[in-house]
Amino acid sequence: MLQEQEVHAAEMERTFIAIKPDGVQRGLIAEIISRFERKGFKLVAIKIVVPSKEFAQKHYHDLKERPFFDGLCDFLSSGPVIAMVWEGEGVIKYGRKLIGATDPQKSEPGTIRGDLAVVVGRNIIHGSDGPETAKDEINLWFKPDELMATKPLSREEIANTE
Ligand code: IDP
Ligand code: MG
After folding, report:
1. ipTM
2. Ligand 2 centroid to residue 152 C-alpha, Å
3. Active site annotated at which positions (predicted)?
């Protein structure tokens, strides 16, 4: 039988979400965070950072053969990005649902890109597209000690901290 801690660890799904410089510049940080928060996902890491171009190239390495790669990396490194890790059951797949299709012209209304963006090169948010990329992106953007341990405190533990 699994120990309680192992059960918890096995259930913990995490994804990397970033508000890109256009989302930050347009004042959409709270709007975007609140959509993940209201759904019931848990924020386990967050920071504001201006990535270097080299860092952006690492983040988007899968796309290096695409014609828009250079412009995309220039853009990601052009200003502050809100880098986050969100946790919850199904958060990788459902996070992508909340975000909507890559091209905002094709994103459904009700999604973040569908409601708040117009063109593919300024689609305001990034989300990992699968378990492997989620792991890689979390490791690229965060050190392990920057991630919250999200096991809730027991009543006794809360009482003991007062
Ligand atoms: P995703 O962000 O929905 O996962 P990807 O295909 O991984 O989409 O592309 C990464 C980012 O590259 C997109 O969010 C978008 O900003 C940009 N991008 C994708 N396709 C195009 C394009 O055809 N022209 C310009 N930029 C693009
Ligand atoms: Mg992608």
Report:
1. 0.98
2. 32
3. 126
